[in-house]
């Protein structure tokens, strides 16, 4: 599932997946290969323009050039345009990385001729039917009918209410393993409208994301520390496995049979590790959202970490801290917590984290050296002692409650500190003693 607030901060957009089955491949294969040929045409024309004119062609230029091609007529017009838009999104990412100093990045390249590219149908590219969807093609071609199970457009919110969504985007993706299509997956994005949320004057919870810890502070004086070392260990193990595969691949000849087999094995192993990491991330954000719901939280405050990785790469932080910052998916965690909160009627906002880690929550004194080693905070002025991430979450809460004045004394005293750890047996975060959470 995914969450977006492009049109309204309280609008709920969710994506659900429906397996179609590999037996539908003969219907979708020509459509997906046509999308792949449009992608390759974009790559070819962009290279030609760069060689002749030393510039990148714009999006409208490519759409105007290819709209009369035969392959363009295989798809619905908006589906064909979506391929060009995806190509330019990849080009923008490549150029941004190059501007940030990543000289090893390469521009989007050609795909194999028989590559099954994911095809997108926008709102005018499909019909909603009583039993499913009708995916349109170009004029004169029959749409592809996809039957779906009963209740395919209905979700049940945590409070028990059923909400019917309106499909706004459809994607068909092929799951290929060992050169064989194992399944076709239909991704449908639903618009469930603006969800009613609690008044902003209610209780507040603030969150401080860290690589190995996640801290929570509420306006009731309750502090929660989620120990994320298991998640961090999984990410580090994935990086180690990836490095081992890359070292082996570097010694093999390009295009050889052994290299292709090793590439396939690399994909299978990394996919399994990625699923494990995503599960832990969803379990963490669900536990946070459930805590907010049970405690009646109205507003969840997350730190705005825009530019964090860029500042870490300038040498302001050490090598280990830089590595931890770059391997944690802060944006994905924030998005997951945002839509889970919205399903429970809780609004999510982002506030800057500037000076929250170097200011005392109790007295408001700013002194970076008060953050001791191993994540311990001890104020030099008032002697207030606390885990450093909890101190940062408290300052983020103070920023919300006092109108951006973290130099003031604490508006809420610390009453309770709880610790949470990952339980391997039940695959979820559980409440543990302070000694077990250390």
What kind of sheet is the major sheet?
Answer: 7 strands, mixed
Total DSSP E strands: 19
**Shape, please?**
globular
Number of helices: 9
Helix percent band? 25-40%
Radius of gyration: 25 Å
Strand order of the largest sheet: 14-13-10-11-12-18-19
Sketch the topology as an H/E string, one letter per element.
Answer: EHHHEEEEEEEEEEEHHEHHHEEEEHEE
Beta-strand content estimate: 15-25%
Structural class: alpha+beta
Give the CA-CA distance, first to last residue.
Answer: 33 Å
Low-confidence sequence ranges: none
Number of structural domains: 2
Mean pLDDT: 89
Walk me through the structure.
The mean pLDDT is 89. α5 crosses α8. Helices cover 38% and strands 25% of the residues. It folds into two domains: 11-194, no CATH class; 204-432, no CATH class. It has helices at 25-53, 59-66, 77-99, 229-249, 257-294, 308-316, 319-327, 330-343, 388-402, and strands at residues 11-19, 119-121, 126-129, 132-135, 144-147, 154-156, 162-164, 166-177, 180-194, 204-209, 213-218, 222-227, 299-304, 347-352, 371-372, 376-378, 385-387, 416-423, 428-432. By secondary structure, the protein is α+β, with helices and mostly antiparallel strands.
Quick structural overview:
The chain has about 450 residues and is α+β, with helices and mostly antiparallel strands. The chain has two domains: about 10-195, no CATH class; about 205-430, no CATH class.
């Amino acid at each position: 599932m995914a969450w977006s607030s492009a049109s309204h901060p309280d609008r709920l957009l969710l994506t659900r997946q429906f397996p179609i089955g590999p037996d539908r491949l003969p219907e979708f294969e020509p459509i997906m290969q046509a999308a792949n040929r449009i992608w390759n045409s974009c790559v070819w024309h962009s290279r030609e323009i760069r060689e002749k004119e030393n510039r990148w062609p714009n999006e409208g230029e490519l759409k105007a050039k290819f709209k009369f091609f035969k392959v363009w007529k295989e798809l619905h017009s908006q589906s064909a345009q979506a391929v060009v838009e995806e190509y330019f999104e990849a080009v923008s990412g490549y150029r941004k990385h190059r501007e940030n100093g990543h000289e090893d990045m390469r521009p989007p390249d050609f795909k194999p001729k028989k590559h099954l590219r994911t095809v997108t149908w926008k709102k005018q590219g499909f019909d909603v039917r009583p039993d499913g969807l009708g995916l349109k093609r170009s004029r004169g071609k029959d749409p592809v009918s996809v039957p779906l199970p009963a209740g395919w457009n209905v979700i049940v919110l945590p409070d028990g209410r059923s909400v019917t969504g309106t499909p706004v985007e459809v994607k068909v993706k092929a799951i290929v393993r060992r050169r064989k299509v194992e399944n076709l997956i239909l991704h449908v994005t639903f618009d469930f409208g603006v969800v009613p949320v609690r008044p902003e004057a209610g209780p507040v919870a603030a969150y401080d994301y860290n690589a190995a810890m996640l801290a929570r502070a509420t306006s009731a004086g309750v502090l929660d520390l989620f120990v994320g070392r298991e998640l961090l260990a999984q990410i580090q193990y994935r990086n180690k496995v990836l490095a081992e595969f890359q070292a082996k691949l570097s010694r093999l000849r390009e295009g050889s049979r052994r290299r292709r087999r090793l590439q396939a094995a690399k994909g299978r192993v990394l996919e399994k590790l990625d699923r494990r990491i995503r599960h832990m991330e969803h379990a963490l954000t669900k536990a946070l959202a459930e805590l907010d719901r049970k405690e009646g939280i109205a507003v969840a405050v997350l730190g705005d970490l825009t530019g964090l990785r860029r500042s870490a790469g300038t040498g302001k932080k050490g090598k280990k801290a830089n590595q931890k910052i770059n391997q944690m998916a802060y944006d994905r965690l924030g998005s997951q917590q945002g839509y889970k909160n919205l399903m429970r009627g809780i609004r999510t906002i982002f506030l800057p984290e500037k000076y929250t880690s170097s200011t005392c929550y109790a007295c408001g004194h700013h002194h970076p050296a008060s953050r001791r080693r191993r994540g311990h905070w001890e104020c030099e002025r008032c002697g207030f002692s606390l885990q450093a991430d909890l101190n940062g979450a408290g300052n983020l809460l103070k920023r919300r409650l006092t109108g951006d004045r973290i130099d003031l004394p604490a508006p809420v005293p610390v009453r309770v500190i709880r610790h949470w750890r990952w339980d391997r047996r039940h695959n979820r975060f559980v409440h543990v003693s302070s000694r077990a959470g250390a």
